[in-house]
Design goal:
six-stranded parallel β-sheet, Rossmann fold, three-stranded parallel β-sheet
Length: 326
């Protein structure tokens, strides 16, 4: 009997901010033909399309997922397809449908098709004003004030249920704000921390949709990918939390980010005009206690505000100069 040693991975939401970069890293590690990227309506970037197989998949349609799983012999799923926080407040019904029905379909497919392991990201959006905002603990009360947060709390409980009831190896982290120089985010409350770099380099000015003193936990994309892959590769015996792990790398205010950018672009100007996203940000943690992730499976970030800002500006400046954006 031949023993299977190579993972066959499906990444849903692969055209999104995190999925697009995670897919490329997974292909480096496991081979380009062994990682299937799946998106719904957005076409894949040229880099993503050329690096391996791509399928259009609507995760709210279970048969779509099952067909791809069978076609490629999938044994591991990274389920990243979701409607994010700000977009979710503009259309809460869509957020519930995509986030909950999509997750349920993935978990049911995994149960029925004997999928070995599933990754699903939760978010700091699970926390609400009843949780401590500074050094928010792993097991703080979860009473969010956004539909996105509601779907993440429900999703955490559903993932835990599939582990305890069916033994499905589901793993999750609560992503903070994610900062990337590759793919723009799509409808999140922490998007300002990405947009600001593009506008600083292109126009030397930015209008920020949260207050100058708004502090939120953040993470640079390389650390986000590292946390995701480290958790998925960890010994199952080390995974003590089957809801979701707090993970973070840094916390800073919008004003502190502006000050750090000005060290590299002295004439950069930022204006603050808070919109409806300010209320969402004010209900979220300012910093996280991720000691459980550090202790149980060795989580440790590489980047802080200074090193992240330097790297973002260097990489974006080079890409703007070369005109190499997708």
């Amino acid at each position: 009997m031949q023993i299977k040693t190579t993972k066959r991975i499906l990444v849903t939401g692969a055209t999104g901010q995190i999925g697009s970069e995670l897919t490329l890293e997974l292909r480096k590690k496991y081979g380009k033909d062994n990682v299937v990227a799946a998106g719904h309506k957005r076409k894949p970037s040229e880099k993503l399309a050329e690096s391996g197989p791509f399928e259009f998949v609507d995760t709210t349609n279970k048969e779509n997922i099952v067909a791809v799983v069978k076609k490629y012999g999938i044994d591991t799923i990274y389920h990243l397809a979701a409607v994010l926080s700000a977009t979710g407040e503009e259309n809460p019904q869509l957020a519930w449908h995509v986030n909950m029905d999509g997750l349920y379909n993935v978990l049911e497919t995994a149960r029925e098709q004997k999928i070995t392991r599933v990754f699903w990201p939760s978010s700091i959006a699970v926390f609400g004003p009843d949780a401590p905002r500074v050094n928010t603990p792993q097991n703080a009360v979860l009473i969010p004030q956004t539909m996105y947060g509601v779907t993440k709390v429900a999703g955490e409980l559903l993932c835990n249920y599939y582990f305890t009831r069916f033994g499905l190896d589901v793993r999750s982290v609560r992503y903070p704000g994610i900062i990337s120089n590759e793919t723009l985010p799509g409808g999140g409350t922490t998007d300002y921390a990405v947009e600001i770099f593009y506008e600083a380099i292109k126009k030397r000015r930015y209008t920020c949709f949260v207050r100058e003193d708004t502090v939120l936990p953040m993470m640079y994309m390389p650390d986000c990918i590292k946390a995701t892959m480290d958790l998925m590769e960890a010994d199952p015996a080390k995974i003590k939390h089957r809801t979701s792990y707090n993970v973070t790398a840094m916390s800073f205010s919008a004003g502190e980010l502006v000050a750090e950018i000005k060290k590299h672009i002295p004439d950069f100007l930022c204006e603050y005009k808070p919109d409806f996203r300010q209320k969402i940000a004010d209900s979220w943690p300012m910093s996280l206690d991720d000691s459980a992730a550090r202790k149980e499976w060795g989580w440790k970030p590489k980047y802080d505000l200074a090193t992240m800002t330097k790297d973002m500006i260097e990489k974006l400046s080079k890409r703007f100069a070369e005109g190499s954006f997708n």
